[in-house]
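Narrative of activities, Objective 1.

The group set out to show that a structural description can be obtained from nothing but a protein's sequence at a throughput compatible with the screening campaign. Below is one input-output pair from the validation batch, recorded exactly as produced.
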Amino acid sequence: MRFIRLAALVALAACAPRTPAANVATARTAAPAAASAGPPVVILISIDGFRADYVDRPGAVHLRALAARGVRADRMIPSFPAITFPNQYTLVTGLYPGHHGIVVNNMSDSVLGRFSLGDNPAVRDGRWWGGEPIWVTAEQQGQRSAMFFWPGSEAAIKGVRPHWYNKYDGSIPNSARVTQVLNWLSLPVDSAPRFIGVYFSDTDDMGHKFGPDSPENAAAIAHADSAVGAILQGIDSLRLSQRVNVIVVADHGMTELAPERLIPLDEYVSPDSVTILELNPMAAIFPKPGAESYVYNALKGRDPHLTVYKKGELPARLQYRDHPRVAPILALADAGWTIVRTRASSRVKPGSLMGMHGYDNELASMGAVFVAGGPAFQQGLRVGPFANIHVYSLMTHILGLRAAPNDGSLSAVQDMLRSR
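Output recorded for this entry:
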């Protein structure tokens, strides 16, 4: 039997989260004779804020190696708005945020109330989450799924949760997340998950705080890349490389901020006339009753770096006008600019907030990484930009699942796949 390097595995296992049914096996108990036989597996790895061009940075050694034996996109275009929860959920449903209902990170609903990031009941309430994420698709069609930190995975969506999932805890180190992925993979074929999702936040954390070109972010790129490398090494050691397909994505990119590039809304419109749930770099503005015309006219054309829309005026390409949770007025900053309530309240200062995303989703700086490899994929292929709505169709195809209705298309990504 070939083992994952025992000392490394023991060190990783010591950090593994203790969740029910999550650690029912370790890589040391896998049956290697059966490892190479069995149906395909997909591992979706999301590295928050990992911009497409980060693959060319010195620290992204394992991602470049994966790209060399797989497929790399010039960039993956996030859906609008280019922020975390909407796009993480788009990746697993194939629906635009304007269709699945997670339209921003912080929002309101006339029936359900308020939704925000973090540990709160709304995140675990399946009524917020529209569409059908791939773990529901898999579970309903007899394939087990396992999710280590993914927006929506803690909620019963259509009454279904992943077979294994973890309540979000950002303090859990990457090493423990890697160990858990390998533990799931090492289960017997008839009980192991066919779809696994795992999330890392390194480059979003450091990109925001220090900027995308900072030494701190360079270290974060290398740290996240090493986690990917550990998963790839584990797959090889478990003799699963002929079954497991690895897809590395991000929810969005990142751009540099400057302290002087501020758009102070309260200097343009009375703060008593609005409720703002999402602020930077897209302000989701809910005017008080009777104040919509005043707010719109006060903001429209007021700042050369701010584009203001009524909901019905949003460009059709954004696919963002349909959902009732979308604010009546939206104000979008130019790349590198920050919307604040007042200049005094600005957080754009060294060591506080030096990078941001959420700008026009078609900007190159908002482009997300896409690198994939495994038996389903072509080798050494570079493809042009494509929209992230197509990832769901790609994954369901590899797994042999009937896809739920979605906005994507397999034909948009078919060229990545080997012909059978």
